[in-house]
Amino acid sequence: MTDTPNEQPAQHRLAVIGAGVMGTNITALATGHGLDVTLVDVDEETLTTARRTIRHKLGHAQLMNALPDGRPRGTVTTTTRLDGITGATTVIEAVVEIAEVKRKVLAEASALTAPGTLLISNTSCVPVDEMAGWVVRGEELVGVHFMNPSYLIKMVEVIRGTATADTTMDAVGSLLHALGREALVVNDAPGFVINRLLHPLINRAALLVQEGVATAETVDGLLEGCLGHTTGPLRTADLIGIDNLVDSLQVLHERTGDPECAPCELMLQKVADGHHGRKTGRGFYDYRTATKRNTP
Ligand SMILES: NC(=O)c1ccc[n+]([C@@H]2O[C@H](COP(=O)([O-])OP(=O)(O)OC[C@H]3O[C@@H](n4cnc5c(N)ncnc54)[C@H](O)[C@@H]3O)[C@@H](O)[C@H]2O)c1
Fold first, then answer.
1. Is 233 within a domain?
2. Do 142 and 251 reside in the same domain of the chain?
3. Do 46 and 30 contact (CB within 8 A), yes or no?
4. Same domain, 70 and 149
5. What is the ipTM of this complex?
6. pTM for the complete prediction?
7. Helix or strand or coil: residue 203?
8. From the CA of 22, how far away is ligand 1's center (Å)?
9. Could you tell me if residue 34 is inside a domain?
10. For residues 35 and 9, what is the distance between their CA atoms, to the nearest angstrom?
11. Helical H segments across 21-79, by residue range
């Protein structure tokens, strides 16, 4: 992967598919760095909420001094039509972590875009080689695991598939440079590095709560106080979204057979109850009465 130091943001036009937790994070990061973004979702109401969320995240990024000085912000265009992506130089897929949904979206997105369009998946766990079989040009596909919040965490995990071309690695390097991100590149595997480690940890932390060994506060307090974890695994789960975690664990479990990746009953119950974490106001913690303190 090579950097292009004098890269101008205007050279990149982004399309982001999926306007949930990560679509809004990535859009805030990109527009905050001067890139224009077309944001696509199947649901108009989600897009209305997303526009508000992106403004809020940009305000938070500004407050945290996480945006480049003096660079005009990019624009955000929202649409429910997937063909809104056609003018983009890079398409970032950030839809739900369900392989069948990703398969359809990636196949359609790759058919709609011209050769030379960088195709990125922000998947948590689906192997890049598996996704390469779904698209028209597997050599232009790469995994970029943006962290949450994307505008605060500089490091990203880049996943190079077997088919990913050198030119694709150069293009993703140029984009990440324009976004002010740093990257570490890993080889392909289910969950890559971060989520092969993090997701079973969160699952095990939830299991300890399920078994009554400790409360969520105590588990997080021990991981923070003794091991230097910044937020604790269960606050992290609430930030990620427990629904997304359960889907991601299932993807991992199906592809690795690792019993540590089978989502525990407590996580499944929280999803069934609609307690998905911060995005629904309740998960392992209750955010409904502490909106300000718990933002973003
Ligand atoms: N949440 C995190 O902290 C986090 C971090 C890194 C990576 N990821 C990954 O990023 C991706 C998105 O996760 P998320 O947490 O934003 O999920 P989310 O559930 O918050 O949002 C997903 C969005 O995709 C939309 N969507 C579903 N089908 C669609 C389609 N066919 N076309 C367009 N939009 C569609 C949904 O309406 C929803 O708005 C997943 O692959 C996830 O594993 C999540």
1. yes
2. no
3. no
4. yes
5. 0.99
6. 0.94
7. helix
8. 6
9. yes
10. 5
11. 21-32, 44-63
Tens digit of each residue's pLDDT (9 = 90 or more) over 127-157 = 999 999 999 999 999 999 999 999 999 999 9
pLDDT at 249: 98
Cβ-based burial of 117 (10 A; exposed 0-12, middle 13-18, buried ≥19):
buried
Same domain, 160 and 224: no
Pocket around ligand 1: residues whose beta carbon is below 6 Å from it? 17-23, 40-43, 46, 94-97, 101, 105, 122-124, 145, 148, 240-241, 244, 248
Claim to verify: residue 77 and residue 168 sit in the same structural domain = yes
Quickly list H helices, the chain: 21-32, 44-63, 99-112, 128-132, 166-178, 194-210, 216-227, 233-240, 242-256, 265-272, 291-294
User: Residues for the chain: how many in total?
Assistant: 296
Residue 267 lies in a domain: yes
Count of the separate structural domains present in the chain: 2
Query: Whole-angstrom Cα distance, residue 204 to residue 86?
Result: 42
Backbone angles phi, psi at 33, to 5 degrees: -100, 15
Q: What is the whole-number distance in angstroms between the Cα of residue 226 and the centre of ligand 1?
A: 33
* pLDDT 10s digits, 25-59: 999 999 999 999 999 999 999 999 999 999 999 99
Structure tokens at 132: 């390469």
CATH number of the domain where residue 233 is located: 1.10.1040.10
Which domain covers residue 229, as residue numbers?
A: 195-280
